[in-house]
Each structure stands twice: as structure tokens, then as C-alpha cells.
Amino acid sequence: MNPQRTPRLGLIVNPIAGMGGRVGLKGTDGDELLRLAVARGAVPMAESRAALCLEAFLKGAEGRPFELHVGPGAMGERVAERYGLGVVVAGRGALPPPSSVRTTAEDTRRTARNMADTGVDLLLFAGGDGTARDICVALGRDRLVLGIPAGVKIHSAVYASSPAAAGFLAAATLFGDTSVIREKLAEVMDIDENAYRSGVLRAKLFGYLRIPYERRRVQGLKAGSGTPEAAAQAEIAAAVAETISAGPETLWLIGAGTTTKAVTDALGLSGTLLGVDACLGGSLVALDLSERDILALIAQQSDPKKIKILLTPIGGQGFLFGRGNQQFSPDVIRAVGRENLMILATPDKLHTLRGAPLLADTGDPSLDLELEGYYRIVSSYGGFTVYPLAAAGQ
Amino acid sequence: MKTNPKTEPRDFHQAKWDEPVIFELSTPGERGVLLPGTEPEIAALGNPWEDLPKELHRTSPPALPEMSQMRVLKHYLRLSQENLGADLNIDIGQGTCTMKYSPKINDQFATSPKLAELHPLQAPSTVQGTLEILYETEQFLKEISGLDRFCLHPGGGSQAILGIGSVIRNWVDANGMADRKDEIVTTIFSHPSNPAVAKIKGFKVITIYPDPVTGRPDMKAFMAAVNERTAALLITNPEDIGLYNPSIREMTDLVHSVGGLCSYDQANANGVLGIARAREAGFDLCFFNLHKTFSSPHGCGGPGSGVLGVQKHLVPFLPAPVVDVDDQGNYFLQYEGVDRENRIKDYYGVLPAIVRAYAWMLSLGDEGLREVARVSILNNNYIFRKILRIPGADAPFAAGEHRMEQVRYSWQGLKDATGCGVADVQNRIFDFGMHIWTSHEPWIVPEPFTIEPTESYSKDELDEYVAVLEQIVREAHENPDILKKAPHRSTIHHVDHDVLEDPKRWAITWRAYNRKYRGYFEAR
Fold first, then answer.
1. What's the gap in Å between the CA of B233 and the closest CA on chain A?
2. Which range marks the domain in which residue A275 is found?
3. Domain count, chain A
4. Residues A384, B205: C-beta atoms closer than 8 Å
5. pLDDT 10s digits, B291-335
């Protein structure tokens, strides 16, 4: 945030997001689906969700000046007009006329890049998982963004819990006490909409976006505030790194996520964030493995009992298998065995589940049921949490 | 009085003095007391300074502030006016702290020269009355808990847990089980000192979450956690959310079946006092806070006292000394049969806190103690129903059930509707001369606040507190800015906690402050 100038808020509405939901289409990725949704009488939802967000934002802004940068027409300009807000429109020329809702993924990406170039302090985007992926492609992990939930079903962790929550948080980010706003990387999921429509949820971890969150601002703490997430991850990583170092003959299959990445960091190794890496004898022997690669490594391992899978659930969702780590296929999981799963989760990640169990959706319902039960999750240095895992279909 | 505080908050404004720290008020040469010179007869005996070994001499005088008595008095009075003292505000928002009235007469006992001028190394024959108080206090605690022996040494609850940790550690080691009993099971709602002590004492910590519906510990998870490696269970009941756990005996039985110990964190014992005991629930150890439950002032109100009790089989591991009485009725410090090596604090405990608690127990008697629990539960369920009627306030878990002596509520509904959460409510409530804790880490209950209206508070005061909450919630809906910019009538505005988490910037001592800042946190 540049304190010398008027804060700049970006707003991109993906007008087609959420349209499929009410007409039973589970998403509107692709032209054909959009036509079908419109034919079934779908009406744009995202704009009204963005309006709820703007209302909360204006409440929070309390008349303080700001610049609002919007996408053209239905991509933000129109909803801003409802509130009589003067706007800067990003990249109008290349886009469909204001009345059209037929925007494409490329429209979202181009608009996002335009806004990044004009230096918005925070970019709000109303949409679903597909929109989040477009923002991720356009901006990477460096820009501060926040999702307004408007999609059919959202699996990405980059969205606020409600449109109003997004608005309040945006106002706090732009105008609030800067000491309470923190930034973190949150997961963007890639859902296969075709499979989803036929009742199968296939998802992988697509990437991360940088989002703001509000640190608690209080007077007179009775006890210290919670451990910062990065410190909690480092604590877990230190414990796991000791275990890995103590058993160099064990093959460690390290899954995706920032918590598992902290482990390779603690070992001084350059692991991948999104892929499955293999560690043996204190070094990474392979990166970003496919299921086939993993099965080959397992077959080579001299002592089949000395194989462990290191993994962490998706924040806010609890998926341990089937989201972001399909490389851990039913064959891989069965070969390694449930007793050799080492699950890592910071206390905050567990708290976000609100008591809901971890979930397994391996693609093999009978394996999901076999995996059910209680696990010892590594949740701090020397600390474990006994937590349930359930089959996702249950 | 222009308002009825039961329906409309009363006017209040905190005093604000631009008062420097005392070191900045020092004037070289200014004195509070001018000591007379040494009488010639004394001086003739020589200069004791000369007799002191040279290595004990300071090379420079201590950098104490130099001030007159009147200026010292004003300084501290001003600071006191910038506080919300326990005797000033309706303290029920400090849930889990068991704020209650500490009868002033008990302070007089504690500050009596008969007590205050004792030296801990005096011969037991010269402090028989004090030893009798220690002895009788222990007898009362044995009766209240059903356990067999108490150590009164710890200076607070966490130190009592540390004592419990050392008893468990020493018991494991003495029985040659160090290689096979290395885990301690606890719950996420137990006080964090429990897992912290377990780790300090070299155990792994296994934590259980609550059942999302009942709020009690997830029994299946518990059964999965307990095994032959379990050295002990550290748990509390009721947990901070205010729900009594009826499966507690089942849990202690399971831990005993694998050869582990069970320790009961009774820091919040107000709702079970005289009603339920550690022994019947199957515990081998427990501790109470004499501050809090037993009415000695809590926290900053005075030094605390945690007292730790054990069943007979663990007495040999209890820190020495304890107080016993011989056949002639003489009280003495007993070092036999307890653990001379297991010292967690010097001497025999925080005597003023023990004396206050002793007087409080004597004044109530056993029926009075039970009445404390009953009234605190009644008060709590009265205000529970009133708070649940406030829009945006909720009490997660166990819908429709009564609570014990406190409730963990959530402002998540208010946050969703207005953007104002518990931190905003907290900042605003200072403007009404009241207080609400927020730091119930971890936030299993979102936007948490805990209200614990002990037996001390009248119905009128509970109504007054609720009227303030109602007013704040109205403001959150009508003009959230009032909350966001609060407090408006308090001593300070917002505290930047960033500084407290940054070793480069925090200043815990005056010396560190001088090193890092020019004044008022302007960095050097």
C-alpha cells in the first residue's frame, strides 16, 4: 500500500460465474455450457454478489476517498454504476460491449493484468474456481487479491466466506489499521467440470494466490495470540525433518502444499510446491512425480515397509486425498499402507474445519472406506492431534 | 443518576494522564526519606561497608528514581486511575478468570504484621499459628477434592501444572517406564499450560478435539489416542465452553487400564465446588487456584497460588516440605515421605493468598462452598439466556443444554452481519468501564468471548452488563465505525501488538526501551 496516494481497489466480475448452478449445470466453463445455461433460463448471479460486497466495502470505507478500477460493462463497470461510483475502466477496447455477459477466461486474465499494471492495491474478483485460476494465471503469487464467492461450488481457499465479508475485509485492507492486515498464500483448485457434472469431483491443486486476512486486534491479551501460520509450519517441519533425517533408508513421498514444502525447506532441499517429490537418503531423488513414477519408485524400494507418504489436507476443506494429489492413487495408497501415512496440519488449519473430518476421495470408494478412522496428525513439534478421516462420499 | 444502568449504559470516561514512567520523573538529589546520621555509639563500632568482601561491592549505585514521597504517591494514583480494577468494573467478561469478590477483611488478615513480618526461615516453633493455617488449609482441600495430600507451594496455576508434570515425570522414571511411557493425552479446550508442561517434561502431546455436536471430547478419538505409551491424561471438566463432561470417569478408567495417571486441571472449579470431587471422577492428581475459585485476588490483583494434590500412591513424588502435626500438637515442616528433590518454588507457598483462601473457606463452611457453586451456575444460566437473545451472539455446541459456571459464546453472527467481531466489541466495551476477554486461543469457537458471572455478581449487575452488550450490538448495526474506532473514552486507543511479537522492537524493560526508543516509541 502506498500511503502517498489514494488507495486503489480493483473489481472484476465474471458475469457468467454461478449461472450454471441454478439450472443444474455445475459450472459454466466453456462456450457450449454457457449457451446451454442461458437457454435454460440462467440469470447472471455474480453481479448481485459483487453488489453485496461493494455495499459492505462502502460501509467500511465511510466516505474515505478511493479509486475504483473495474472491468468493462458486466465485468464490474455496471455494478459500480448502481452506486454512482466514478470508476476507471480497465482495457475496455478489447472486450465485448457492456450489455454482454459472454466473457471468456482470456477477458478475465487480460483485465486482471491491466489492473495490475495500473497498480491496484487489492483486486477483488467475483467468480468461482475457474475465475480464481484465471487470476492465478494472470497475476501469479505476488499481487494481493481476494475472491467474492459467486461460483456454483467453490473449492479454492482464496474466497472470503461471504460477499459482505469480502467487502469488509477489502475496506480494512485499504483503510484500516495496517497492523492488523496480514497476507498469506491460499489454495486455488482446479476442478474438472466435465467430471463434476457426471458426479465425480476431480480436483488438483492449481496454484496459490496472495490474499489478505485480518489479524485480531485486541487490547489486553490474556495469553499470547495464536502462533503465526508460517511459524507453526516451521515447527512441524523441524519435527518431521528430524524424523526424516533419522531414517535415511526410508523413501518419503512428499505431497503438495505449503506445510509439506516447509519440510523440504527445513531439510535444505528444493522441493516443489504443487507436485509430489521423493526423498531418500537425505536428498530429493525425484521431483513432481506422476502416479506411474511413484509406483516405479515403490517397486525399487528394497524394504517395502520403509515407505512413507507425507501429506497435508487442503485448508478449509479437509480433503486429504483426491484434491491436489491424485498422484497418490488407490494403487499407491494401498502399496504404502494407511499405517505409513504421515499427515501434517497446523492447529489453525484444523480449526478451520470446524470439527468436520478430513476427507478421502481417492476415486476408489472402497479404499475411501478403508481409510476411515482416526489418525495422529503432526500438529506441532512433539505434538499430535488425533483427528477423524471420513470417506468423502459419506 | 440520569439513566437506569439495567437498561441504558451509564456515562463513563476513563482518566487519562500523560504520565511518564517513573524513571523519567527522577530529579537528582530529590529524596522521599532523609535518614538520620549514625549515632556515635554505633559509628564507634566501625564501618560495616569495610567488612563486606570487596567482590560484593557495587561499582556504581543502582539507577533508582529519586523522588519525594508526594510525587511517588501521585504517580501511582494516576496510574491506578488508568486501570479498570476488579473492585471497579463488572468483571464477568473475564470468563475463565473466575472474578469474584475478595472480602476486604481477608486482606487485613493477609497484611497483618503478624503475617507480613514473618521470615520464611524462622524456627517452626515461632510460627506455629502460620503452620496451623497451612495444615488446616490442606485438610480442607483434601476434603474438597477427595485426594490425600496437597502441596501448597506453587505461585499460580501454571506452576501447579509444572508441579504435576514433575510428579508424573518422576513417577514414570522411578518406575523404570521412561522408555515405554512417553505420551500425554489432553484436549484442545484444556488450558495450554497442560500440553506446554507435558512437552517441557519430555512427553509427546496427543490432543483430542471436541465432538462438533456435543462439545465434549470426542470419545472415539480419545480411545484411539490412549495406548500403552500413555503416561497420563491432563484434562479439565467442565471445559471452558461450560459443558460438564459426563464421560469423565470412563476416560480416567481407560487411562488407568493402560497404566497411566490422570490429572484434573481444576483452575476453573467454581461450578463443581462441594458438588463433584476429583477422587470420585478417578483422578490421581489435581490442582486448584486459590486465587480465582477461593477468592484470593486474581492475576494482577495479587500474587496467585496454585495448590496441587495427589492420591496416596503419588505422595512420595510431592514437592517437600509439607506441614504435619506431632503427637503433642506441634506443627512442623515434614520432609519425610515426600520428594526433597522436587522443588518448584522456595519455601511453602504464597502465604497471603493461602491465608485469604483459608479465611474464605472458614467463613463459608461446606454448605457455603456448595452454595457458591449453585449460585454461580444459576447466575450463568440466567445471563446465558439473556445473551442468546442478543442478535449476533451464539453459543456453539450442545444446543438447548444448560451450562455450568461459564459459557464460551461467539460473535461470528455479528461479524457476518456488520463486519464487527469480538475485537471490536472489546475495544468498545472499555468506553463503558467494562471489559471482555478475547484471547481464547485457539479460536475453535469463532469470534469467541467467555462470560463467567460468579456468585459475587447481583442480578442487577448482570442486567447492566447485558445492557451494555445490547447497546454495542445496536451500534454495530447502525454505525459500525463507533466500534471500529473505539475506544473513545478510554486511556489508550489501540495497542499495536506487532511490537510485542517482534524481538527487534519489543521493550520489556526500561533499559530495553532506552536502547530502542527515543521516547514514546519513536525508534532510535
1. 14
2. 229-391
3. 2
4. yes
5. 999 988 876 555 789 999 999 999 999 999 999 999 999 999 999
